[in-house]
Specification:
The protein is α+β, with helices and mostly antiparallel strands. The protein folds into two domains: 95 residues, Rieske [2Fe-2S] iron-sulphur domain (Rieske Iron-sulfur Protein), CATH 2.102.10.10; 240 residues, Naphthalene 1,2-dioxygenase Alpha Subunit, Chain A, domain 1, CATH 3.90.380. Helix content is 25%, strand content 24%. It contains twelve helices and 19 strands. A hairpin with a 3-residue loop joins β15 and β16. The two termini are 25 Å apart. It binds FE2/S2 (inorganic) cluster. InterPro entries: AhdA1c-like_alpha_C, ARHD_Rieske_2Fe_2S, Rieske_2Fe-2S, Rieske_2Fe-2S_sf, Ring_hydroxy_dOase_asu_C_dom, Rng_hydr_dOase-A. It comes from Pigmentiphaga humi. Its cofactor is Fe cation. Its EC number is 1.14.13.172.
C-alpha cells in the first residue's frame, strides 16, 4: 500500500466532512502535500468541483468540424463528450453516453453524420443530441414497448453549455461560469488572441500520449520557468530560452489559475552565454551546432514581443506558440496517477506551402517524443513515482518566495503558488487542522 493511501484511509475515518479530511501544511503557500497528486478522493472531488464546476473546458477547434454534420469525440475532464455541428451551423456538446443504458455510442474520433445511432438498441439522436427515434417504441402487437407517457423530449443526451473564442470551442457543466472573455481575463487573452487572431485555422496533425502523472503536474510544469532553463538542453544550447533572455511568467490577476510563460529568443541563436550562467546549467553543451539550421528559423509573423508563449488555460488547455509551431494540448485526467494528452497541431489557411513545411519541420520540438516534450514527460513521470512511493510527503515551492502569481524572474515558483491558492479555495482544503 502506498503511503498516501494510508494517510487517506486514516483521515477519511477521522473526520466528518470531506473538506476536513485533508490537512494542508502549516506553511500553506510554500509547501504542497503529496496527496494532491495521489489520492483518489481528492481526484474525485477535483472532477466535481473543477471539471464539472465553474470552468470552461476546451473541447475542439472549429476548424475540426467546419461543415454541418461534422463531429469530434472529446472530453471534459475524464467524461467523454461529442462536439457536433448541426445543419444550422450551431455547435452542440453532449455527453457520449446513450440516454437509454449508458453506452458510449459515438465510436469514431471524427466524422460526418446525419444522426447518431447507438449501436446497442439503436436509439437515434439528432445532431443537437435530441432523442428522435426508439425502435419498437409502441411494442409489437400491442405488447411491450414504452409507457404511453414516455416523451422523447425528456430523454435527450446530456448537453453542456458551449462558447467559442476565435475558433476555439469550450464547454461547461456550469450555468454560472462567466463569459469566456471574462474567464480568461485581458492579460491572458492578449497572447491567446495572437495565436488565435480569428482567421481560419488549418489542422496539421495530431499526437496522443499517456503520461504516468497527475494532471495538475502538467499545469505546474508550464508555470515553472525554473525547470525550462535547466532540464531542456535544447532550449539553452540553441538560445531559445536562457536565464537572462527577456521573459515573463504571467498569471491571470483574478485567480492565478491561467498562465502565460513567455520569452523572446535572441536574434543570434548561438549568442554568447556568460560563464556564470553556463556554470548553473549542467545541460549546457558548448559548441553544439545543428546540421540543419532551418529548424530554428523564426519567421516573424505575429505582432508580439515574444517568440514563445506557452499558455495554461485552466483546467484542461495548453496553447503552444513555440516560434512558428502552433498547437493546442488537451489534458484528459485519467485517475490520480495518469493523464492523457491530446495534441492538435495547426497553422492558418492562408499559410504558404513553405510555411506549412516550416511549421511541420519545427514541430519536431514538440509532441510526445519532441526535442522539448520528451524531457518534460520523463520529469513528470519521475515526480509521480517519487510522490507515490517515497516516505517524506511535501513538495517545496519557495523560489521567489515574496511573489504569488506573476513574476518577472524565470527563477520563480510564484505562478505555481498562485495556482494552488486558487485550487485550495475551489477544493475547500483548509490550511491546517
Ligand atoms: Fe443505447 Fe440502448 S444503450 S440504445
Amino acid at each position: 500500500m502506498y503511503k498516501n493511501q494510508e494517510i487517506l484511509d486514516y483521515t477519511v475515518g477521522a473526520k466528518n466532512g470531506p473538506a476536513e479530511d485533508y490537512a494542508w501544511p502549516e506553511d500553506g503557500e510554500h509547501l504542497i502535500p503529496d496527496w494532491v497528486y495521489t489520492s483518489q478522493s481528492v481526484y474525485d472531488r477535483e472532477m466535481e468541483r473543477i471539471f464539472k464546476g465553474k470552468t470552461w473546458n476546451f473541447v475542439a477547434l472549429e476548424a475540426e468540424i467546419p461543415n454541418p454534420g461534422d463531429y469530434k469525440r472529446s472530453y471534459v475532464g475524464p467524461v467523454p463528450v461529442v462536439v457536433s455541428r448541426a445543419e444550422d451551423g450551431a455547435i452542440t456538446v453532449f455527453e457520449n453516453r446513450c440516454a437509454h443504458r449508458g453506452a458510449e455510442f459515438c465510436r469514431t474520433s471524427q466524422g460526418n453524420a446525419k444522426e447518431f445511432v447507438c449501436p446497442y438498441h439503436q436509439w437515434s439522436y439528432d445532431l443537437k443530441g435530441n432523442l428522435q427515434g426508439i425502435p419498437f417504441k409502441r411494442g409489437v402487437a400491442k405488447q411491450g414497448g414504452m409507457p404511453k407517457d414516455f416523451r422523447n423530449e425528456d430523454h435527450g443526451l446530456l448537453k453542456l453549455r458551449v462558447t467559442t473564442r476565435n475558433g476555439v470551442i469550450f464547454a461547461s457543466y456550469s450555468d454560472e461560469v462567466e463569459p469566456i472573455e471574462e474567464y480568461l481575463t485581458p492579460e491572458i487573452l492578449k497572447d491567446f488572441d495572437v495565436a488565435f487572431p480569428g482567421k481560419p485555422l488549418k489542422i496539421l496533425g495530431y499526437y496522443k500520449n499517456e503520461l504516468p502523472c497527475n494532471w495538475k503536474m502538467y499545469h505546474e510544469n508550464l508555470k515553472d520557468p525554473y525547470h525550462a532553463t535547466l532540464l531542456h538542453s535544447f532550449l539553452v544550447v540553441f538560445g531559445l530560452l536562457v536565464a537572462g533572455n527577456d521573459s515573463a511568467m504571467i498569471a491571470d490577476p483574478v485567480h492565478h489559475r491561467h498562465g502565460t510563460m513567455a520569452s523572446a529568443k535572441k536574434e543570434d541563436k548561438y549568442a554568447a552565454i556568460s560563464d556564470d550562467t553556463k556554470k548553473e546549467m549542467r545541460s549546457f553543451h558548448d559548441g553544439m551546432r545543428l546540421q540543419d539550421d532551418r529548424f530554428l528559423e523564426f519567421v516573424k509573423e505575429f505582432d508580439s514581443p515574444w517568440s514563445v508563449t506557452m499558455q495554461t488555460i485552466w483546467p484542461n488547455l495548453i496553447v503552444q506558440r513555440e516560434m512558428n509551431t502552433l498547437g493546442v494540448r488537451q489534458i484528459v485526467p485519467n485517475g490520480p496517477n495518469s493523464m492523457i494528452m491530446l495534441w492538435t497541431m495547426f497553422g492558418y489557411e492562408d499559410d504558404t506551402p513553405e510555411m506549412i513545411r516550416h511549421r511541420l519541420r519545427q514541430g519536431n520540438l514538440m509532441g510526445p517524443a519532441g526535442f522539448l516534450g520528451l524531457e518534460d514527460n520523463e520529469a513528470m513521470k519521475f515526480v509521480q513515482e517519487g510522490v507515490r512511493r517515497s516516505s517524506s510527503d511535501m513538495n517545496v515551492v519557495k523560489l521567489d518566495a515574496a511573489n504569488t502569481g506573476t513574476s518577472n524572474s524565470l527563477i520563480s515558483e510564484a505562478a505555481i503558488r498562485g495556482m494552488y491558492q486558487y485550487y485550495r479555495k475551489v477544493m475547500e482544503l483548509p490550511p491546517t487542522r
